[in-house]
Automatic annotation (TrEMBL):
<protein>
    <recommendedName>
        <fullName>inorganic diphosphatase</fullName>
        <ecNumber>3.6.1.1</ecNumber>
    </recommendedName>
</protein>
<dbReference type="InterPro" id="IPR038763">
    <property type="entry name" value="DHH_sf"/>
</dbReference>
<dbReference type="GO" id="GO:0004427">
    <property type="term" value="F:inorganic diphosphate phosphatase activity"/>
</dbReference>
<keyword id="KW-0464">Manganese</keyword>
<dbReference type="GO" id="GO:0046872">
    <property type="term" value="F:metal ion binding"/>
</dbReference>
<dbReference type="Pfam" id="PF01368">
    <property type="entry name" value="DHH"/>
</dbReference>
<feature type="domain" description="DHHA2">
    <location>
        <begin position="179"/>
        <end position="305"/>
    </location>
</feature>
<keyword id="KW-0378">Hydrolase</keyword>
<dbReference type="InterPro" id="IPR004097">
    <property type="entry name" value="DHHA2"/>
</dbReference>
<dbReference type="InterPro" id="IPR001667">
    <property type="entry name" value="DDH_dom"/>
</dbReference>
<dbReference type="GO" id="GO:0005737">
    <property type="term" value="C:cytoplasm"/>
</dbReference>
<dbReference type="Pfam" id="PF02833">
    <property type="entry name" value="DHHA2"/>
</dbReference>
<keyword id="KW-0479">Metal-binding</keyword>
<dbReference type="InterPro" id="IPR038222">
    <property type="entry name" value="DHHA2_dom_sf"/>
</dbReference>
């Protein structure tokens, strides 16, 4: 039986590319594997796949009776709904340890680095498997995306080292220019429905019994949201009601100004305000230097719910 390699429910570039790169590695070491995805491919990820000649992994939302090697998460809220009926054989991730549990031992590669594909590169090195040029290309792009071309506080020296090694394998001379191309694709939001924007890079969390959803949009110029910001705020309110959330938030991240405007819809906004020691104005607040949901939002917001 083939192992499915698959990321979280709303896949980003790291989630998709790590499923592909991990599946290739597992096949090379004699473990039959197939990459999969739980959701639609976003524009940036499609750009990366097209650039290096890949098609999107199989769309699969049910894993009952299957073996699955999880990539880029370990939270139950980001897993398939029938995850308890599947066999988790491994986890490779760069986030906090989540609440998934297993009844049997499993392989875990969890490191505090900027991207799952950085860890997958270490797995290739450990197993002494050569990385094909195209695989190296998508892994490199995923790291550039997750680390915001090395600007994110989540970026480590290892991420930078791995990008340089992968760029050499992929034959990419100017990986910074390619990274900017990716973020320009990310910034093309005109005409996209507001719900699609909110869910493009959205993750659900259980914070001490309260359901919280946080999305993030990274662009090169925040003014592109001026015409739709009120619509985004109104749809956050709808999403919170529909999903029974305590709080729904959307980070509008400007990678050039290196900060985020956060739109917040909450049944008790004082919790968010306490977490960041900032007052919301019409449900919005600018957080200077905030580029990472993982490192600059979750570690402050979650304790505020305790």
């Amino acid at each position: 039986m083939a192992i499915y390699t698959c990321g979280h429910t709303t896949p980003d570039s790291d989630s998709i590319c790590s499923a592909i790169s991990l599946a290739y590695l597992l096949n090379k070491i004699g473990r039959e594997a197939t990459p999969a995805r739980q959701g639609e491919v976003n524009p940036e990820t499609q750009f990366i796949l097209d650039r290096f000649g890949f098609t999107a992994p199989e769309l699969k939302t049910s894993f009952a009776g299957e073996e699955i090697f999880i990539t880029d998460y370990s939270d139950r809220g980001q897993a398939p709904k029938d995850i308890d009926e599947a066999t988790i054989v491994g986890i490779v991730d760069h986030h906090k340890l989540g609440d998934l549990t297993t009844s049997a031992p499993l392989e875990c590669w969890i490191r505090p680095v900027g991207c799952t594909n950085t860890i997958v590169k270490e797995m290739y090195d450990y197993h002494k498997v050569e990385i094909p040029k195209e695989i190296a290309g998508i892994m490199m792009c995923a790291i550039l995306s997750d680390t915001v071309i090395f600007k994110s506080p989540t970026c480590t020296d290892l991420d930078i080292k791995v990008v340089r090694e992968l760029a050499q394998i992929a034959g990419i001379e100017d990986f910074g220019a390619l990274g900017m191309e990716m973020f320009k694709v990310k910034s093309a939001v005109e005409g996209v429905p507001v719900r699609e924007l909110i869910l493009r890079d959205y993750k659900p969390f259980d914070m001490h019994g309260s359901k919280v959803g946080i999305g993030q949009l990274e662009v090169v110029d925040l003014t592109i949201f001026d015409a739709v910001k009120d619509e985004l705020q109104a749809d956050l309110d709808k999403l919170r009601e529909e999903e029974g959330l305590h709080t729904a938030a959307l980070l509008l991240t400007d990678i050039m100004k290196e900060g985020s405007e956060v739109l917040v819809s909450s049944s008790d906004a004082s919790i968010f305000e306490k977490a960041f020691d900032k007052k919301l104005e019409n449900g919005k607040v600018w957080i200077d230097g905030c580029l990472s949901r993982k490192k600059q939002i979750i570690p402050f917001l979650e304790p505020a719910f305790a």
